[in-house]
Each structure stands twice: as structure tokens, then as C-alpha cells.
């Protein structure tokens, strides 16, 4: 499949360039995270948006297959040491709550769900697309709860159409406002939810099913 020959509408309505976007690092190598109380969303929020403000950027981006240090904030990620889920499978776009999110390519609503609970997805939309003869699914997490009222399963959506908005905390799963954008070839029987984080042991299998979202986002910051 040649992704370069395909047209995708910018999911945030504009291209994410070095002029308006910075890469945010949430790996263990980021020493700045050690002074942040990640269990306190207001503290975490101040850190994220302090980074954006200090650089004069509207968006922070990153995270695909990143080994992250931020999942210690919630028990839902904690399992046996070898299976601790800390490999991020999507791309996060950190920006102010209420920011508009657009449909990148024609498709239909596969499923919606409010995945409630601390550090969960919160309101979530999954779209189904046909791409070069193959099904591809796109997931949008940490949304505004109000957005789910206007969608139904099977509803057709068009590239460039307003889909939803970045949600505020705590309704977005209690995270600093951002969009979790993820791609999947196979939903594996799930609806309204799909793992956004896996363990190191599962990394290879999930990477095969979850291609790099920047193939659609096309942000030069991640090149």
C-alpha cells in the first residue's frame, strides 16, 4: 500500500508543523517528569501546557511505540512486571479542550463508547474505512462527552467533516486535554474500545496491527 498517494484531511483542521507543534517526550529519559505528580491531573496538566506555552506552540505531539513513564499514575496499567503496559500504540495530540477534530478520510462509525474511569479513554469514537481494498479503523479517544450524542453506529462520515472535540478533564478519562489517535487493521471483535497501550512483550504483535498514525497525520514534527 502506498500511503503517499492518498489524500487525508488534517485531523486537527490544519497541518501540524514545526511552527505550531512541538514533540513531547513522556519516556523515562525525560528528567522533567520526575518532579511532576502524575497522579494529580491538575499538576500533570500544568506541566503539559507549560511546555507548550514556553515554546509558543498550540499542539504537542508524539507517542507512537514510545516507552512511557506516565502510566504509573493508574492501577489499570499495572500487571506483573513483564506485562506492565507502558508501550503507547497511538499518537497523542495535546492541545486545549474544545479543539475540533475532523474526519481524515471517508468512512462510517464503527462504534462509540464512554470508557469511564481514571486514566481510561473517556468518550471514544472508532471509525471504519476502506483503504486500497482493505479495512482500516481509526480511534479517537479522550473526547467531549457531548460529541457522543450526535453519532450512531453505521453513520457515514466524509473526509473533512467535523467529527468531535478534545474533551476536558475529568470527563476525558482524567487526562490533560489531548486526542489519542490510533489506527488498527483488525478490531479483534472489540467495539468502542481497543488497547492503546501494551507491554513490551506484546509490542511486536500490536505494532503489526496498529500502523503508525503519522501515515495519516503527516506531521513533519514526527518525521
From TrEMBL:
CDD domains: M23_peptidase. Residues 87-186 form the M23ase beta-sheet core domain. It holds the Pfam family Peptidase_M23. This is Peptidoglycan DD-metalloendopeptidase family protein. It comes from Algoriphagus namhaensis.
